[in-house]
Amino acid sequence: MALRGFDGALGGRVNAGDDDAAYRQGYDRVMREMAWARQHGFRPSERQLVVAVTQALKVYATARGGKFVGGQRPEWLHGRADALRALLREDAGSSDQDLA
């Protein structure tokens, strides 16, 4: 009976629907930013994408561990990392100059 007050604090996840929405927002934001960057002539190198994925995954792991990170939900950060990975798979940053 004494543990009733801790139910919210120990629950961890608020709602699966909220997690899905946060994931989609993180994913969509990266894709929107990349589209804007491409329109303005910027194409990140493969190295830049790998660094961005690595940073996103580190922050996601930290947030999943329970630390507060920049006000974003962990699933938002997960969506961001997945979007960067998708861009890397599409070979969005490679060009002939990167291979030289």
Order of helices and strands: HHHHH
Overall average residue pLDDT: 77
Profile the largest sheet. none
Helical residue percent?
Answer: 55-70%
Q: How many individual domains?
A: 1
Structural class, by secondary structure, is mainly alpha
**What is the terminal separation in angstroms?**
68 Å
Shape: globular
Q: Would you report the number of β strands? A: 0
**SS field, number of helical segments:** 5
* Cα-atom radius of gyration: 17 Å
Spans with pLDDT under 50 lasting ≥5 residues? 1-14
Strand residue percentage: under 5%
Task: Describe the structure using short key phrases.
100 residues; mainly alpha; single chain; disordered N terminus; 5 helices
Quick structural gist:
With 100 residues, the chain is mainly α. It has five helices and no strands.
How would you portray this structure in words?
The protein is globular and about 35 Å long. Helices cover 68% and strands 0% of the residues. The protein contains five helices and no strands. It has helices at residues 7-11, 16-39, 46-64, 74-89, 96-99. It has one domain. With 100 residues, it is mostly helical. The termini are far apart.
